[in-house]
Amino acid sequence: MKDWLIEHKISVLLGALIVLGGIYYFYVSDSATTSPVNTLSLDEKVQEDEKEKGSIQSNKQPELPEKIMVDVKGQIKQPGVYQANTGERVIDVISRAGGLTDKADQGMVNFAEHVKDEMIIYIPAKGEAGISSPITSSGNPSLSVGSQKEAKININKADETELQNLPGIGPAKAAAIIEYRNTSGPFKAVEDLKSISGIGDKTFEKLKDLIAI
Fold this sequence. Notes:
213 residues, three-stranded mixed β-sheet, two-stranded parallel sheet, 6 helices
């Protein structure tokens, strides 16, 4: 056996080299073929994740502006309660209410002010009693742009249209107030308003802070 190995030494070495070369070839070839597949799978997974994220984001609805309610009174062509969006300004709501009347005192209103929920926008008439300086809102939604506490309606001077801006005063009561002034003379105190038929204590409580003589 030993003699045979010596005689065939070259053949054995060549055979061993061939075997080693075959093992190396198959190992390297297998690694080379499997590596791109793994890379491709990873890329596909990343793309799928991005598509899922994009789909989730596209399904999200954009946030809509909050709806608020604003009460518009005074020298407005169409006074009433109007719906507005957060971020809108007084001028936007006034435009929605038909705009100002010819008697409106524009200098007493901050048209650039942002509106707030439950806000009262009161537009005073020119020369309306109780106004001594331009009026601005303090930021409290319950306060008006033209503050009703400062811009009171003079029941001795207001016409029927102005009187109807007061809560609880319709065309009949407004006409009755003017009739009272014509027959009995000017009101001497705001409490005299209770002399008008249909204006009782409850109605007067709503009016007393909004009127002047």
